[in-house]
Structure formats: structure tokens, C-alpha cells
Automatic annotation (TrEMBL):
Domain AMP-dependent synthetase/ligase: 26-410
Descriptive protein name: 3-methylmercaptopropionyl-CoA ligase
Organism: Nitratireductor aquibiodomus
Substrates-to-products reaction catalysed: 3-(methylsulfanyl)propanoate + ATP + CoA = 3-(methylsulfanyl)propanoyl-CoA + AMP + diphosphate
Residue intervals of the AMP-binding enzyme C-terminal domain: 460-534
Record keywords, A-Z: Fatty acid metabolism, Ligase, Lipid metabolism
Length: 548
């Protein structure tokens, strides 16, 4: 006889091996906690039993239309119940969910619809005008389904557009069968979602997620966000962004409650926290700013502590202190679209509480260590593919390896091969590895400023700027210079009612940094941001070129 005894006559079979998928989590929650509230949306309360039933009916209706494996269903939706239903109903058919950024222009939407070969488009009436324009530009001719949000009132900050579809979402769901037998993926490697990167040049790349990664992210999110039974999650993070970091699938694991938020505004956020007992939310620093800078009349008292997960640049110490005083504890995360959202967490250690303010700030500025669901995280020289020394100083490229890294880029073998060269995912982010294994970003490779042969990290300069009490937002990019090649220019957005001069800001930076790293020019303006709150460096670079 040959072979290992532990392999002989111990084959995989349906009884002992099933493909990993997050869809079974909602099925379990509906059976175990059928009467628990799964979704709150304005005056609506949706139980887990109803959430599951509506997802089944959506899947059934899609299958009747002919949707199945390999098909793409695109959605242009706010953080509303249909978006949660789509995250389950679409993959129940073995199709792929494509969530569109609701702030895109018609040309980019049309490109994505064509590249994804969309068969169905579900569109909220808030976005019907731009979608109508996009569909006129696109080559594909999908079934268009209108969603008319009943919580979209007359006092809405945006107008409700016309109906552009051939069927209403509620009518479409109602046509489905609640007894529909949904399909597990044939393989956990099957695609579950498609997300396009917010590329700044040319057309964006389509990032493909698989069922295995989405399932593992649900477990990892539960651990790293500290989700317990009865958690209440407020949707301040767009669900179109990396599938809401996979939280649409995650909450079912502990039968938590989704609190939908159509528009991110301070008053409804405070109202939700106070009235629904929100325990967790995610978002960019702009969401923190909205909470902290809200008029006193819009703020509400609450007795519990709320966990705020943020994955942009580390908040300055003043913001962290203000958030703590307001009742929030901030967890710093890091990741990319290609890693299903956050795959790195700043795991805080108890002994760091004894450090002084500067010591704690230095620890909080680091991105952290790998998620439990990620197998490898390192910093390497991308040319030699050797690890940089863990000295906190030697800069290399941050690289990922594991089951929560994308399948690859849709219809783009060249970009996929480049991203996975050497058996690691190349993030394009530059960073260092500290002796204790925590990584810290220093810049995007394209954002490093080379002045007089010296590398300047724009992140390091921005960190110094954020310590100035008058600065609300800032971005640092390179400006061409005849003598030095490049010098840093700082774009600064001041807090309402605060003043500061360019000379004052430069002097502030010089008190914290080597003089060659400090901005030579300061421009006061509103900082351009993406829909998820990230600063658009490419637009700042364009403005900097005009200064040269």
C-alpha cells in the first residue's frame, strides 16, 4: 500500500467538506433568531426571517430572468435595505454582485457596465439621471430595476429622479418565490463580487472577490471589530466601497442589527447612536470630523462607548482625544480594495497605556499587524523580493499574501500578473517594519517626494501638519523645483472659524521635522476627497503643476 495513512480512505465528501461562503451565515441567523431585528431603515424594521425571505425572493426573481453563474448584477444603491438584500440574493444565484460608486460620472459608469457585461442594473431613483446617461453611452442593454426608497422624504438633501427602469424593485422581489432553493457556490473560489478601483489615470481595474475570502472576512471582522451578540452597526461607510468591508455579510454571524443611513450627516448619526444603541461604525476621518464639529443642538448624549473603525491616515492625537471624550474608541485599520478592505489592524497592547502622549501617538500612527484571516504581511524590496530589516527605518513595499487577497483583475491578465509577481500581492504602498512586527506606511510609491536626492514621505509631513490646531484637512505633494528637483507643497483646509498664515504653518512644521522635509509653499483651499473620504492626491498634483 502506498500513501500516508491519514490520506487513505479519508476523501472529501458532501458530509465533511462544503465550500466556504458567507451566505450560510444569514441562513443560520434567520433560523436561530427569526424575530430579531436585522435591519432598521427610518421607520422600517426588518427581522432576520424577513431579510432571509426577501433575499430568497430576489434570487428567485433573478433566476427567472435568466441570471446564473458568470452573470453580473450591477447595483447603484445607497446604504438601504435593497443593498443588503443584493449582497445575499445575487450570489445565491451564483451570479456576481457589482456595486457601483454612487458618485461616479456617466462615462465611468458606462465603462464599468460594459467591462462587467452587466445583465441587470438596480438603481436608486436618487441616481437615475446619471444612470440614464450612462446607459445611453453603454453597449450593454441590461434589465433596469428602479428602487423607490419610501424613506426618501420631501426634506431630502437631493432630488428624486425619474423612473428609468421597466420594473419596480418591490414588484420584482414580490414576483420571486420565498421557497426558492438557493445555490451554494460550486467552488469557494467562485466569484462573489466585483469592485472597481478608483484609478486616477485611464480606466479603473475590476477587482474580483471569491466566496472563501468573503466568508473569512466575516469571521475576521467579528473578531477584530469586537462584534458580540446584539451588536448594532451604523452604516456610515458606503456599502459600495469594498462591499462595505464585507460587513453586509458579517453582521449575520452574531445576529447583529444593520442601521441604514442614506446620507451621512451628524444629526442622524447621533440620533441613531442614542435611539438604537449603535455599538459600531466605520468610516474615514471626515466622518469623525462631522461628529466632533457638529453643532451642540445636533449632538445627543449616550451612556455606552461606540467603536469607530477607521482605515485612512491615522488620526492625530487631538482627534483621538476628542473622540474619546465624545464616547468613541477608535480602531485603526489598513487595507486596499484588493484585500477585501481592511486586512491590517493596529492591535493595541495594554502596556502601551502607560506610555506618555507622544509614545502612545507613535504607536497609534502605525497601521499594525495582519488580520487573523491573512496569512502573510511583510515589507520587501520589490526589485529583489527580499524583506527589509525590521528597523522601523528601511522603506520597502508593503506586501500581502493569503485568502483575503483578490482573485485578480477582471479581464486584465497583465495587471494581475504584475500585482502577484513573486507570489505576493504588491500594494504599491511604501512602509517600514518595526522590530515588534508592526508595519507603518510612509507613502504611496507615486507620492514619495525626492528633494535634492533625499526621499520625503508626504505622510510624515501631513502628520506634522495635522498637529496644528487650526488644520482640518491637508495633503502634501511634490512641486517641481529647478534647484532641488522637487519640494513639498502643502494644501491646507482650515477648521471653520480658525485662522493661520502660511508662515505660521511652515514654522510649525519646522518645529517637528527636519527643515528639508517641510513645505516650501502652503496653499489654502478645500481639499478634494473621494466619496469615501480619501484625499485625491492626483488632483492636488495637478494643482501643484500649475504653481510651478
Amino acid at each position: 500500500m502506498t500513501g500516508n495513512a491519514f490520506d487513505r480512505d479519508l476523501d472529501r465528501n458532501p458530509a465533511n467538506f462544503q465550500p466556504l461562503t458567507p451566505l450560510v451565515l444569514l441562513e443560520r441567523a434567520a433560523k436561530v433568531f427569526p424575530n430579531e431585528v436585522a435591519i432598521i431603515h427610518g421607520g422600517q424594521r426588518v427581522t432576520y426571517a424577513t431579510f432571509w425571505e426577501r433575499s430568497l425572493k430576489l434570487a428567485s426573481a433573478l433566476v427567472r430572468y435568466g441570471i446564473g453563474k458568470g452573470d453580473t448584477v450591477s447595483v447603484m444603491l445607497s446604504n438601504t435595505p435593497p443593498m443588503l438584500e443584493a449582497h445575499h440574493g445575487v450570489p445565491m444565484t451564483n451570479a456576481v454582485l457589482h456595486s457601483l460608486n454612487t458618485r461616479l460620472d456617466a462615462a465611468i459608469i458606462a465603462f464599468q457596465l460594459d467591462h462587467a457585461e452587466s445583465r441587470v442594473v438596480i438603481v436608486d431613483r436618487e441616481f437615475s439621471d446619471v444612470m440614464k446617461e450612462a446607459l445611453a453611452l453603454a453597449q450593454v442593454k441590461p434589465l433596469v430595476i428602479d428602487y423607490d426608497d419610501p424613506e426618501f422624504g420631501e426634506d431630502a438633501p437631493y432630488p428624486k429622479g425619474e423612473r428609468i427602469g421597466s420594473v419596480d424593485y418591490e414588484a420584482f422581489v414580490a414576483s420571486g418565490d420565498a421557497g426558492f432553493t438557493w445555490s451554494m457556490p460550486d467552488d469557494e473560489w467562485d466569484a462573489i463580487a466585483l469592485n472597481y478601483t478608483s484609478g486616477t489615470t485611464g480606466n479603473p481595474k475590476g477587482v474580483v472577490y471569491h466566496h472563501r475570502g468573503a466568508a473569512l472576512m466575516a469571521y475576521a471582522n467579528t473578531v477584530h471589530a469586537g462584534l458580540s451578540r446584539g451588536a448594532v452597526y451604523l452604516w456610515t461607510l458606503p456599502m459600495f466601497h469594498c462591499n462595505g468591508w464585507c460587513f453586509p455579510w458579517t453582521l449575520a454571524l452574531t445576529a447583529g442589527t444593520h442601521v441604514c443611513l442614506r446620507w451621512v450627516r451628524a444629526k442622524p448619526m447621533y440620533d441613531a447612536i442614542a435611539e438604537h444603541g449603535v455599538t459600531h461604525l466605520c468610516g474615514a476621518p471626515v466622518v469623525m470630523s462631522a461628529l466632533l464639529n457638529a453643532p451642540e443642538a445636533e449632538k445627543r448624549d449616550f451612556s455606552h462607548t461606540v467603536t469607530f473603525n477607521t482605515a485612512a491616515a491615522p488620526p492625530p492625537e487631538s482627534v483621538l482625544s476628542a473622540m474619546a471624550e465624545a464616547g468613541f474608541t477608535v480602531t485603526h485599520l489598513y487595507g486596499l480594495t484588493e484585500t477585501y478592505g481592511p486586512a491590517v489592524v493596529n492591535e493595541w497592547k495594554g502596556e502601551w497605556d502607560a506610555l506618555d502622549g507622544a509614545g502612545q501617538a507613535a504607536r497609534k500612527a502605525r497601521q499594525g499587524v495582519r488580520y487573523a484571516a491573512l496569512e502573510g504581511l511583510t515589507v520587501m524590496d520589490p526589485e529583489t523580493m527580499t524583506e527589509t530589516p525590521p528597523d522601523g527605518e528601511t522603506i520597502g513595499e508593503v506586501m500581502f499574501r493569503g485568502n483575503i487577497v483578490m482573485k485578480g483583475y477582471l479581464k486584465n491578465r497583465k495587471a494581475t500578473d504584475e500585482a502577484f509577481a513573486g507570489g505576493w500581492f504588491h500594494s504599491g504602498d511604501l512602509g517600514v517594519m518595526h522590530p515588534d512586527g508592526y508595519i507603518q506606511l510612509k507613502d504611496r510609491s507615486k507620492d514619495i517626494i525626492i528633494s535634492g536626492g533625499e526621499n520625503i514621505s508626504s505622510i510624515e509631513v501631513e502628520d506634522a501638519l495635522y498637529r496644528h490646531p487650526a488644520i482640518a484637512a491637508c495633503g502634501v505633494v511634490a512641486k517641481a523645483d529647478e534647484k532641488w528637483g522637487e519640494t513639498p507643497v502643502a494644501f491646507v483646509e482650515l477648521k471653520p472659524g480658525r485662522d493661520a498664515s502660511a508662515e505660521e504653518i511652515i514654522a510649525h512644521c519646522r518645529s517637528l521635522l527636519a527643515h528639508f522635509k517641510c513645505p516650501k509653499t502652503v496653499v489654502f483651499s478645500e481639499i478634494p476627497k473621494t466619496s469615501t473620504g480619501k484625499i485625491q492626491k492626483f488632483r492636488l498634483r495637478e494643482q501643484a503643476r500649475e504653481l510651478s
